[in-house]
């Protein structure tokens, strides 16, 4: 996360342009640069991103417009040359993410889809991006970055999220609420539940000492009981306390819930109003054949 190159895809709608302000803040605290990206599709293909005029000279006009829009939110010294490319938006974003350290984008653009109905572009970018993806929207308040919610299920995958949280804390001195959630319904007796919570809390404290010792003073580690699903508990947490950012892995302990409908990661991305930094532990793996033609 030192000197990151940050890719910001946009369809030039007011909704999507809000990502530039958050990208500028992240570039400021991490000493990074920003690459604006606009993707258009051939006229015969449909999609949420608009189709520009055909003549090549209009591509230059699009580049000027994209640069001008970005400079309304981003300091000139942080801006890299803009990219205007033709293709399927999610595929182009995925390809461009191979050469960057972070992707920052809104959960909805010109189409007006709310986060509750993550669009196909957003969801595929999160699934297949080669870099971590920070999803923001108008209600997100990243600046100043004071409070981070970090989740773990004690999987090796979740440790990658630890690394990104550490980088942000070292730059901002933000506080971190590290949580592990236990469903109470799996226990028949309250004494068994209480005993398990004590054991897991000890393990959580050990994880902080083992993996985050350099930011130990910034962390509150807590095992929390839940009566519902894990994603509903995370949503409630973000409603109760206005965290600036949720940091989480998109892949859990079982390795089976990778952004499937109903998975914890997918539902958190859909339902929380807080910005979410999602780390894909499978970022070296590309999409399978079933996605290539979508």
Rough shape? elongated
CATH architecture of the largest domain: 3-Layer(aba) Sandwich
Low-confidence residue ranges: 110-118, 253-262, 287-294
Tell me the fraction of residues in β-strands, as a range: 15-25%
CATH topology annotation of the largest domain = Rossmann fold
Q: In angstroms, what is the radius of gyration?
A: 20 Å
- Provide the succession of SSEs: EHEHEHEHEEHEHEHEHEH
Please report the number of helical segments. Answer: 9
The CATH class designation of the largest domain is Alpha Beta
Number of strands: 10
Structure description:
The two termini are 32 Å apart. It contains nine helices and ten strands. It folds into two domains: 5-138, Rossmann fold (3-Layer(aba) Sandwich), CATH 3.40.50.620; 147-243, Rossmann fold (3-Layer(aba) Sandwich), CATH 3.40.50. By secondary structure, the protein is an alpha/beta fold. The chain is elongated and about 70 Å long. It has a ten-stranded mixed β-sheet, sandwiched between helices. 40% of the residues are buried. α7 (230-240) packs parallel to α8. The protein is 38% helix and 20% strand.
Summarize the structure.
The protein is 38% helix and 20% strand.
Topology readout:
Blueprint: E1 5-9, H1 14-30, E2 33-40, H2 57-71, E3 83-86, H3 89-96, E4 102-106, H4 120-128, E5 133-136, E6 147-151, H5 156-172, E7 175-183, H6 190-211, E8 219-226, H7 230-240, E9 245-249, H8 264-271, E10 275-279, H9 289-292
Helix pairs in contact: 3-4, 7-8
């Amino acid at each position: 996360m030192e000197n990151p190159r940050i890719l910001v895809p946009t369809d030039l709608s007011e909704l999507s342009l809000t990502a530039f302000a958050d990208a500028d803040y992240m570039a400021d605290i991490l000493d990074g640069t920003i690459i604006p990206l606009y993707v258009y599709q051939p006229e015969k293909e449909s999609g949420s991103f608009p189709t520009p005029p055909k003549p090549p000279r209009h591509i230059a006009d699009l580049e000027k417009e994209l640069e001008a829009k970005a400079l309304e939110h981003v300091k000139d010294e942080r801006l890299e040359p803009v990219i205007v490319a033709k293709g399927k938006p999610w595929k182009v974003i995925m390809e461009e993410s191979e050469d960057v350290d972070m992707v920052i984008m809104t959960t909805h653009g010109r189409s007006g889809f709310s986060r509750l109905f993550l669009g196909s572009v957003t969801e595929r970018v999160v699934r297949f991006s080669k870099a971590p993806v920070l999803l923001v929207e108008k209600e997100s308040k990243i600046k100043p970055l004071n409070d981070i919610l970090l989740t773990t299920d004690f999987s090796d995958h979740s440790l990658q999220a630890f690394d990104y949280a550490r980088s942000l804390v070292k730059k901002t001195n933000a506080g971190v609420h590290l949580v592990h959630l236990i469903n109470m319904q799996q226990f028949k007796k309250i004494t068994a539940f209480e005993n398990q919570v004590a054991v897991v809390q000890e393990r959580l404290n050990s994880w902080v000492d083992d993996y985050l010792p350099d930011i130990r003073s910034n962390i509150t580690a807590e095992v929390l009981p839940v009566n519902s699903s894990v994603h509903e508990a995370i949503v409630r947490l973000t409603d109760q306390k206005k965290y600036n950012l949720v940091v989480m892995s998109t892949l859990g302990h079982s390795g089976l819930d990778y952004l499937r409908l109903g998975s914890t990661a997918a539902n958190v991305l859909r339902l929380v109003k807080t910005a979410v930094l999602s780390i894909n532990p499978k970022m070296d793996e590309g999409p399978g054949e079933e996605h290539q033609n979508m």
